[in-house]
Amino acid sequence: MSKAIMVHEVGGPDVMKWEEHDPGQPGEGEVRVRQTAAGVNFIDVYFRTGVYKAPQMPFALGKEGAGVVTAVGAGTDRFKVGDRIAYNGVAGSYAEEVVVAADKAVKIPDTIDDHTAAAIMLKGMTAEYLLRRTFKVGPDTVLLFHAAAGGVGLIAGRWAKHLGATVIGTAGSPEKCELALQNGYDHVINYRDADFVEKVREITDGRKCDVVYDSVGKDTFPGSLDCLKARGLWVSFGQSSGNVPPFDIGILNQKGSLFATRPSLFGYNTSRDELDASAKALFDVVGSGAVKITIGQTYPVAEAAQAHRDLEARKTTGATILTM
Protein backbone atom coordinates (compact mmCIF):
# COMPACT_ATOMS: atom_id res chain seq x y z
CA MET A 1 0.00 0.00 0.00
CA SER A 2 1.23 3.47 -0.87
CA LYS A 3 1.84 6.00 1.91
CA ALA A 4 1.26 9.74 2.22
CA ILE A 5 1.44 12.56 4.75
CA MET A 6 -2.16 12.91 5.93
CA VAL A 7 -3.79 15.63 8.02
CA HIS A 8 -6.87 14.66 10.09
CA GLU A 9 -7.19 17.96 11.97
CA VAL A 10 -5.69 21.40 11.54
CA GLY A 11 -2.84 22.43 13.82
CA GLY A 12 0.92 22.36 14.21
CA PRO A 13 3.40 20.07 12.45
CA ASP A 14 2.47 17.20 14.81
CA VAL A 15 -0.86 16.75 12.99
CA MET A 16 1.04 15.49 9.93
CA LYS A 17 0.89 11.68 9.87
CA TRP A 18 2.84 9.32 7.57
CA GLU A 19 0.29 6.60 6.90
CA GLU A 20 -1.19 4.31 4.29
CA HIS A 21 -3.12 6.11 1.59
CA ASP A 22 -4.22 4.70 -1.75
CA PRO A 23 -4.74 7.48 -4.29
CA GLY A 24 -6.77 5.15 -6.49
CA GLN A 25 -6.56 4.51 -10.20
CA PRO A 26 -6.57 7.36 -12.70
CA GLY A 27 -9.95 8.31 -14.11
CA GLU A 28 -10.70 10.10 -17.34
CA GLY A 29 -8.15 12.82 -18.01
CA GLU A 30 -5.87 11.68 -15.17
CA VAL A 31 -2.53 9.90 -14.70
CA ARG A 32 -1.06 8.04 -11.75
CA VAL A 33 2.47 9.09 -10.80
CA ARG A 34 5.18 7.34 -8.81
CA GLN A 35 6.67 10.32 -7.03
CA THR A 36 10.38 11.00 -6.90
CA ALA A 37 10.23 14.36 -5.08
CA ALA A 38 7.78 16.92 -3.76
CA GLY A 39 8.21 20.62 -3.10
CA VAL A 40 7.49 22.23 0.28
CA ASN A 41 5.81 25.64 0.27
CA PHE A 42 4.16 28.03 2.69
CA ILE A 43 0.82 27.28 1.09
CA ASP A 44 1.15 23.81 2.64
CA VAL A 45 1.48 25.43 6.08
CA TYR A 46 -1.61 27.52 5.37
CA PHE A 47 -3.66 24.39 4.63
CA ARG A 48 -2.22 22.47 7.60
CA THR A 49 -3.05 25.29 10.03
CA GLY A 50 -6.46 26.08 8.56
CA VAL A 51 -5.57 29.53 7.19
CA TYR A 52 -6.72 28.03 3.89
CA LYS A 53 -9.63 25.63 4.23
CA ALA A 54 -9.04 22.11 2.89
CA PRO A 55 -11.85 20.68 0.75
CA GLN A 56 -12.25 17.69 3.08
CA MET A 57 -10.83 15.93 6.14
CA PRO A 58 -8.58 14.03 6.22
CA PHE A 59 -6.49 15.31 3.33
CA ALA A 60 -3.10 14.58 1.82
CA LEU A 61 -0.72 17.54 2.07
CA GLY A 62 1.36 19.14 -0.68
CA LYS A 63 0.82 21.04 -3.93
CA GLU A 64 3.78 20.32 -6.25
CA GLY A 65 5.83 17.31 -7.22
CA ALA A 66 7.60 15.32 -9.89
CA GLY A 67 7.80 11.68 -10.85
CA VAL A 68 7.11 9.01 -13.45
CA VAL A 69 3.74 8.13 -14.98
CA THR A 70 2.72 4.57 -14.08
CA ALA A 71 -0.87 4.50 -15.38
CA VAL A 72 -2.96 6.59 -17.77
CA GLY A 73 -6.71 7.11 -17.53
CA ALA A 74 -9.20 7.06 -20.37
CA GLY A 75 -9.16 9.99 -22.76
CA THR A 76 -5.62 10.98 -21.80
CA ASP A 77 -3.25 11.29 -24.75
CA ARG A 78 -0.95 14.01 -23.42
CA PHE A 79 1.23 11.53 -21.46
CA LYS A 80 2.20 7.88 -21.59
CA VAL A 81 3.55 5.39 -19.07
CA GLY A 82 7.21 6.14 -18.36
CA ASP A 83 7.00 9.90 -18.99
CA ARG A 84 8.69 12.17 -16.44
CA ILE A 85 6.22 14.85 -15.43
CA ALA A 86 5.90 17.65 -12.90
CA TYR A 87 2.87 19.53 -11.66
CA ASN A 88 1.55 22.10 -9.22
CA GLY A 89 -1.87 22.92 -7.87
CA VAL A 90 -2.71 19.24 -7.31
CA ALA A 91 -3.39 18.19 -3.72
CA GLY A 92 -1.45 15.36 -2.11
CA SER A 93 2.15 15.58 -3.34
CA TYR A 94 3.66 14.52 0.03
CA ALA A 95 3.12 10.93 -1.06
CA GLU A 96 4.73 7.93 -2.71
CA GLU A 97 2.04 7.91 -5.39
CA VAL A 98 -0.51 10.45 -6.51
CA VAL A 99 -3.22 10.78 -9.15
CA VAL A 100 -2.84 13.96 -11.17
CA ALA A 101 -5.13 15.70 -13.64
CA ALA A 102 -3.23 15.64 -16.92
CA ASP A 103 -4.15 19.26 -17.64
CA LYS A 104 -2.23 20.32 -14.47
CA ALA A 105 1.02 18.58 -15.44
CA VAL A 106 3.86 19.17 -17.89
CA LYS A 107 6.64 16.97 -19.25
CA ILE A 108 10.03 17.55 -17.68
CA PRO A 109 12.65 18.36 -20.32
CA ASP A 110 15.94 16.47 -20.39
CA THR A 111 17.76 19.60 -19.18
CA ILE A 112 15.93 19.46 -15.81
CA ASP A 113 16.26 16.70 -13.18
CA ASP A 114 13.32 15.54 -11.06
CA HIS A 115 14.48 17.21 -7.83
CA THR A 116 14.85 20.56 -9.57
CA ALA A 117 11.47 20.16 -11.26
CA ALA A 118 9.78 19.45 -7.92
CA ALA A 119 11.49 22.50 -6.42
CA ILE A 120 10.43 24.97 -9.10
CA MET A 121 6.95 24.13 -10.31
CA LEU A 122 5.22 26.33 -7.76
CA LYS A 123 8.05 28.66 -6.71
CA GLY A 124 9.50 29.11 -10.20
CA MET A 125 6.15 29.65 -11.86
CA THR A 126 5.33 32.13 -9.11
CA ALA A 127 8.51 34.04 -9.95
CA GLU A 128 7.58 33.85 -13.64
CA TYR A 129 4.17 35.43 -13.32
CA LEU A 130 5.36 38.03 -10.79
CA LEU A 131 8.26 39.27 -12.95
CA ARG A 132 6.79 38.82 -16.42
CA ARG A 133 3.05 39.34 -16.03
CA THR A 134 2.05 41.04 -12.76
CA PHE A 135 4.68 43.71 -13.44
CA LYS A 136 6.78 43.48 -16.58
CA VAL A 137 10.30 43.80 -15.14
CA GLY A 138 13.01 45.21 -17.40
CA PRO A 139 16.26 47.21 -17.39
CA ASP A 140 14.55 50.36 -16.09
CA THR A 141 12.89 48.59 -13.14
CA VAL A 142 13.90 49.11 -9.52
CA LEU A 143 12.24 46.50 -7.34
CA LEU A 144 12.11 45.33 -3.73
CA PHE A 145 11.61 41.65 -2.97
CA HIS A 146 10.94 40.61 0.63
CA ALA A 147 12.16 37.19 1.84
CA ALA A 148 14.97 37.36 -0.71
CA ALA A 149 16.64 34.18 0.56
CA GLY A 150 13.47 32.10 0.37
CA GLY A 151 12.50 29.67 -2.35
CA VAL A 152 10.70 32.19 -4.55
CA GLY A 153 13.08 34.98 -3.56
CA LEU A 154 16.27 33.30 -4.79
CA ILE A 155 14.71 32.37 -8.12
CA ALA A 156 13.24 35.86 -8.52
CA GLY A 157 16.57 37.52 -7.70
CA ARG A 158 18.45 35.75 -10.47
CA TRP A 159 15.60 36.09 -12.94
CA ALA A 160 15.09 39.80 -12.26
CA LYS A 161 18.82 40.43 -12.68
CA HIS A 162 18.72 38.42 -15.94
CA LEU A 163 15.97 40.84 -17.07
CA GLY A 164 18.25 43.77 -16.27
CA ALA A 165 16.52 45.18 -13.17
CA THR A 166 18.03 46.80 -10.10
CA VAL A 167 17.17 44.23 -7.46
CA ILE A 168 16.81 45.05 -3.75
CA GLY A 169 15.92 42.39 -1.19
CA THR A 170 15.29 41.90 2.50
CA ALA A 171 16.38 38.94 4.64
CA GLY A 172 16.65 38.14 8.34
CA SER A 173 20.28 37.23 8.97
CA PRO A 174 23.77 38.03 7.65
CA GLU A 175 23.97 34.53 6.17
CA LYS A 176 20.69 34.94 4.31
CA CYS A 177 21.73 38.38 3.09
CA GLU A 178 24.95 36.95 1.70
CA LEU A 179 23.07 34.11 0.00
CA ALA A 180 20.73 36.60 -1.68
CA LEU A 181 23.68 38.68 -2.86
CA GLN A 182 25.05 35.54 -4.52
CA ASN A 183 21.75 35.08 -6.33
CA GLY A 184 21.19 38.25 -8.29
CA TYR A 185 20.44 40.88 -5.66
CA ASP A 186 22.29 44.18 -5.93
CA HIS A 187 21.45 45.19 -2.35
CA VAL A 188 20.09 43.15 0.57
CA ILE A 189 18.76 44.71 3.78
CA ASN A 190 18.87 42.78 7.06
CA TYR A 191 15.47 43.78 8.39
CA ARG A 192 16.46 42.73 11.93
CA ASP A 193 19.24 45.35 12.05
CA ALA A 194 17.85 48.19 9.92
CA ASP A 195 14.64 49.94 8.94
CA PHE A 196 14.08 48.61 5.43
CA VAL A 197 12.07 51.69 4.44
CA GLU A 198 14.92 54.02 5.29
CA LYS A 199 17.47 51.75 3.63
CA VAL A 200 15.43 51.65 0.41
CA ARG A 201 15.31 55.45 0.36
CA GLU A 202 19.06 55.53 0.89
CA ILE A 203 19.85 52.93 -1.79
CA THR A 204 17.64 54.64 -4.38
CA ASP A 205 18.65 58.24 -3.49
CA GLY A 206 15.05 58.89 -2.50
CA ARG A 207 13.53 57.72 -5.78
CA LYS A 208 12.21 54.47 -4.25
CA CYS A 209 10.87 51.44 -6.16
CA ASP A 210 8.60 50.77 -9.11
CA VAL A 211 7.28 47.55 -7.55
CA VAL A 212 7.45 45.78 -4.18
CA TYR A 213 6.90 42.01 -4.03
CA ASP A 214 5.66 41.08 -0.56
CA SER A 215 4.99 37.53 0.64
CA VAL A 216 5.54 38.40 4.32
CA GLY A 217 2.30 40.23 5.07
CA LYS A 218 1.66 41.66 8.52
CA ASP A 219 5.28 42.43 9.45
CA THR A 220 6.04 44.39 6.27
CA PHE A 221 2.79 46.38 6.08
CA PRO A 222 2.49 49.34 5.63
CA GLY A 223 6.27 49.73 5.24
CA SER A 224 6.14 48.16 1.80
CA LEU A 225 3.93 51.00 0.60
CA ASP A 226 6.49 53.55 1.81
CA CYS A 227 9.12 51.95 -0.46
CA LEU A 228 7.13 52.78 -3.61
CA LYS A 229 7.44 55.78 -5.87
CA ALA A 230 4.27 57.57 -6.96
CA ARG A 231 1.95 55.20 -8.86
CA GLY A 232 4.11 52.22 -7.89
CA LEU A 233 2.71 48.71 -7.50
CA TRP A 234 2.49 46.74 -4.25
CA VAL A 235 2.23 43.00 -4.98
CA SER A 236 1.03 41.14 -1.88
CA PHE A 237 1.33 37.45 -2.74
CA GLY A 238 1.59 35.78 0.68
CA GLN A 239 1.42 36.23 4.43
CA SER A 240 4.17 34.22 6.11
CA SER A 241 4.11 36.52 9.19
CA GLY A 242 0.31 36.72 9.33
CA ASN A 243 -2.44 38.38 7.35
CA VAL A 244 -2.20 42.00 6.28
CA PRO A 245 -4.60 43.84 8.64
CA PRO A 246 -7.70 45.44 7.16
CA PHE A 247 -6.91 48.93 5.91
CA ASP A 248 -8.64 51.96 4.44
CA ILE A 249 -8.05 51.92 0.68
CA GLY A 250 -7.49 55.68 0.94
CA ILE A 251 -3.96 54.92 2.19
CA LEU A 252 -3.02 54.11 -1.41
CA ASN A 253 -3.96 57.64 -2.41
CA GLN A 254 -2.19 59.20 0.57
CA LYS A 255 1.07 57.43 -0.21
CA GLY A 256 1.23 58.39 -3.89
CA SER A 257 -1.72 57.08 -5.92
CA LEU A 258 -0.36 53.56 -5.49
CA PHE A 259 -1.63 50.38 -7.11
CA ALA A 260 -2.12 47.15 -5.15
CA THR A 261 -2.81 43.57 -6.16
CA ARG A 262 -3.20 40.23 -4.38
CA PRO A 263 -2.38 37.66 -7.07
CA SER A 264 -1.89 33.90 -6.98
CA LEU A 265 -0.30 31.43 -9.35
CA PHE A 266 -3.62 29.68 -9.84
CA GLY A 267 -5.21 32.96 -10.93
CA TYR A 268 -2.52 33.45 -13.56
CA ASN A 269 -2.34 29.93 -15.01
CA THR A 270 -6.03 29.47 -15.65
CA SER A 271 -5.75 27.81 -19.06
CA ARG A 272 -3.59 25.13 -20.65
CA ASP A 273 -1.96 27.73 -22.87
CA GLU A 274 -0.99 29.84 -19.85
CA LEU A 275 0.40 26.81 -18.01
CA ASP A 276 2.45 25.69 -21.02
CA ALA A 277 3.81 29.20 -21.63
CA SER A 278 4.76 29.62 -17.97
CA ALA A 279 6.46 26.21 -17.83
CA LYS A 280 8.35 26.86 -21.06
CA ALA A 281 9.63 30.23 -19.83
CA LEU A 282 10.69 28.66 -16.53
CA PHE A 283 12.36 25.57 -18.00
CA ASP A 284 14.13 27.68 -20.64
CA VAL A 285 15.63 30.13 -18.15
CA VAL A 286 16.66 27.36 -15.74
CA GLY A 287 17.90 25.02 -18.47
CA SER A 288 20.04 27.76 -19.98
CA GLY A 289 21.78 28.35 -16.63
CA ALA A 290 20.61 31.97 -16.43
CA VAL A 291 18.68 31.07 -13.26
CA LYS A 292 20.33 28.55 -10.97
CA ILE A 293 18.12 26.75 -8.48
CA THR A 294 19.20 26.52 -4.84
CA ILE A 295 17.79 23.47 -3.06
CA GLY A 296 18.71 24.41 0.48
CA GLN A 297 17.14 21.47 2.33
CA THR A 298 16.14 17.90 1.50
CA TYR A 299 14.12 15.68 3.85
CA PRO A 300 12.71 12.15 3.51
CA VAL A 301 8.97 12.51 2.99
CA ALA A 302 8.29 10.71 6.29
CA GLU A 303 10.05 13.64 8.02
CA ALA A 304 7.86 16.31 6.43
CA ALA A 305 6.81 17.60 9.86
CA GLN A 306 10.41 18.64 10.56
CA ALA A 307 10.54 20.40 7.21
CA HIS A 308 7.50 22.44 8.30
CA ARG A 309 9.05 23.26 11.68
CA ASP A 310 12.18 24.55 9.99
CA LEU A 311 10.21 26.50 7.38
CA GLU A 312 8.05 28.23 9.98
CA ALA A 313 11.09 28.99 12.16
CA ARG A 314 12.71 30.71 9.15
CA LYS A 315 15.62 28.28 9.29
CA THR A 316 15.38 27.36 5.61
CA THR A 317 16.95 28.99 2.57
CA GLY A 318 16.10 28.46 -1.07
CA ALA A 319 13.84 25.56 -2.00
CA THR A 320 12.90 22.69 0.28
CA ILE A 321 12.06 19.28 -1.15
CA LEU A 322 10.91 15.92 0.14
CA THR A 323 12.31 12.73 -1.41
CA MET A 324 10.58 9.39 -1.69
From TrEMBL:
<dbReference type="GO" id="GO:0003960">
    <property type="term" value="F:quinone reductase (NADPH) activity"/>
</dbReference>
<keyword id="KW-0521">NADP</keyword>
<dbReference type="InterPro" id="IPR011032">
    <property type="entry name" value="GroES-like_sf"/>
</dbReference>
<dbReference type="Pfam" id="PF08240">
    <property type="entry name" value="ADH_N"/>
</dbReference>
<dbReference type="GO" id="GO:0035925">
    <property type="term" value="F:mRNA 3'-UTR AU-rich region binding"/>
</dbReference>
<dbReference type="InterPro" id="IPR013149">
    <property type="entry name" value="ADH-like_C"/>
</dbReference>
<feature type="domain" description="Enoyl reductase (ER)">
    <location>
        <begin position="11"/>
        <end position="322"/>
    </location>
</feature>
<dbReference type="Pfam" id="PF00107">
    <property type="entry name" value="ADH_zinc_N"/>
</dbReference>
<protein>
    <submittedName>
        <fullName>Quinone oxidoreductase</fullName>
    </submittedName>
</protein>
<dbReference type="GO" id="GO:0005829">
    <property type="term" value="C:cytosol"/>
</dbReference>
<dbReference type="InterPro" id="IPR047618">
    <property type="entry name" value="QOR-like"/>
</dbReference>
<dbReference type="InterPro" id="IPR020843">
    <property type="entry name" value="ER"/>
</dbReference>
<dbReference type="GO" id="GO:0070402">
    <property type="term" value="F:NADPH binding"/>
</dbReference>
<keyword id="KW-0560">Oxidoreductase</keyword>
<dbReference type="InterPro" id="IPR036291">
    <property type="entry name" value="NAD(P)-bd_dom_sf"/>
</dbReference>
<dbReference type="InterPro" id="IPR013154">
    <property type="entry name" value="ADH-like_N"/>
</dbReference>
